[in-house]
């Protein structure tokens, strides 16, 4: 199989595919597979008819979708796969790190050795915490594994409500009554959902008002899952206890944004997943997906262009 | 049984003992048990002969030992128990939190959204890390549980070399050859050992020079397990990659100490264990130890005054 890799190849991925007998070529040399890891403006205006499959190098395809790129090519029979699942462990670990940093009040430590303050404010995950995982797919399952030894009570929230293994219960995101309980009873809320019209501002002023005063929220999904203004107000007012944010809205978060100042907000610059792990793994994923495509099957991470993820 | 609680009682502990039928009295009213949670200067100059057992409210008794308090009373038949084990989970969780915060470079995040820097510098615990736990007792075992889902290869180090369950291998601290391998091959080194003449400055310039450049060290044992000056130099020189410190030497760490400035050093002010968990649990421990003592048995956390822990 011939593949192109745009805007520029990840060496580790390309090496993996070449070792599996595939050939890297330019887009003009009739590749059958395109691996694409750029943004909408990097996407080629035209794809040669030879391209049957586009393997995206990341999981969240909403920008390509909004730019109309997926629909335009899908119409002509091109199939798309994203990279969901190949960084479950990186993101789940980054999530736990943020959650613990917020609970343990790392940012509140001062050079004045403010032990008494931390004695009062430190919370422990193991201490009978109720954890809700909103958007519990592959990353959520990995997070459930990481959190299991802490004995937390986990509520998984997904679209279908289909039971997620390891969770105490699974709630469908559309189940308004059950979601009331999730918002009002959770000590920790982790957002892992993709950004869709339904999930935009999922956590807004109304939801924040329902949450416990001791609740902490961790967002490693997409910034716009949260209404940033409402979150800032809730944190300022003590309506919730803290936040860990790997994604923000806007992103990057402006250097003068009040969230940077808060000692109960731990921020990382969208680094829960990092390219060197993606590079290491996308080659293997593309090879597997190509095999499935060639066998006439649905690819392991095939994008449902109509559903938008 | 009558017990006194000095310098002042923890309400939750006292309530627990009273609920079990015991009576809280002043030291002058001939208590049989003294629960003590202060420092050497708080310890009563004289104990009434009625006191058979002193239950210490924390684990590290080296200060009482150095002040000669344990020996003086042990000589007269008083037995001492410490509070080892009742905060395995708090300390193990705090250890994991520090370790992840260092690996994930939380302190290096800047308002300039330095994503590229973090892409390069973030490390993951799950990523084939070798973790050494120096002083692997109860806390170490809990840490092994917490770390298990990350698939790390764990080397436990203890005095006896007796196998620690869940560890890939256990090394005796006195095994010079095996310790060479521990220092030179571990990616993460966690110090949980008590402070004794043997463990003071266990991590000094010589040991730091053996460690990998990517190694991170987390100290939640006692500050003086590390030669602070040597650690500071090693971090400045890039001889090791980072440190998480819940304990320091001197402690508190002076506000102008260079360690505070380093973005690869995460410090908490000796708050891995916090009083409200100790208070919740020391009552039950004292009751259990009193029962064992009354039955003529060795107490569950009895201090070996000669050994010093």
Automatic annotation (TrEMBL), chains A, B:
Which residues does the UniProt record annotate as the domain D-isomer specific 2-hydroxyacid dehydrogenase NAD-binding? 97-272
Could you give a GO molecular-function term held by this entry?
oxidoreductase activity, acting on the CH-OH group of donors, NAD or NADP as acceptor
Q: Output the Pfam families linked to this UniProt entry.
A: 2-Hacid_dh_C (PF02826)
Q: Which UniProt keywords apply?
A: NAD, Oxidoreductase
What is the protein name for this chain?
D-isomer specific 2-hydroxyacid dehydrogenase NAD-binding domain-containing protein
Tell me what organism the protein belongs to: Corynebacterium hadale
């Amino acid at each position: 199989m011939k593949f192109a890799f745009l805007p520029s190849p990840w060496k580790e991925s390309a090496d993996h595919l070449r070792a599996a007998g595939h050939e890297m070529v330019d887009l003009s040399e009739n590749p059958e597979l395109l691996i694409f890891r750029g943004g909408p403006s990097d996407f080629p205006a035209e794809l040669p008819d030879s391209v049957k499959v586009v393997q995206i190098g990341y999981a969240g395809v909403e920008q390509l979708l909004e730019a109309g790129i997926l629909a335009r090519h899908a119409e002509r029979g091109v199939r798309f796969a994203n990279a969901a699942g190949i960084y479950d462990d990186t993101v789940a670990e980054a999530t736990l790190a943020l959650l613990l940093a917020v609970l343990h009040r790392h940012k509140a430590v001062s050079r004045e050795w403010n032990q008494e303050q931390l004695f009062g404010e430190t919370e422990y995950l193991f201490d009978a915490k109720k954890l809700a995982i909103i958007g519990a797919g592959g990353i959520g399952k990995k997070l459930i594994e990481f959190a299991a030894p802490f004995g937390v009570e986990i509520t998984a929230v997904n679209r279908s409500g289909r039971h997620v293994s390891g969770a105490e219960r699974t709630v469908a995101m559309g189940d308004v009554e059950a979601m009331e309980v999730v918002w009002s009873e959770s000590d920790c809320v982790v957002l892992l959902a993709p950004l869709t019209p339904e999930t935009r501002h999922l956590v807004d002023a109304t939801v924040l008002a329902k949450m416990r005063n001791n609740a902490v929220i961790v967002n490693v999904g997409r910034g716009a899952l949260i209404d940033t203004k409402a979150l800032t107000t809730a944190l300022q007012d003590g309506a919730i206890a803290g936040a860990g944010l790997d994604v923000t809205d806007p992103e990057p978060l402006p250097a003068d944004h009040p969230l940077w100042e808060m000692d109960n907000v731990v921020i990382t610059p969208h680094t829960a997943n990092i390219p060197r792990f993606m590079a290491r793994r996308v080659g293997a994923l593309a090879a597997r997906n190509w095999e499935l495509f060639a066998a006439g099957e649905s690819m392991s991470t095939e994008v449902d262009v109509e559903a938008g993820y």
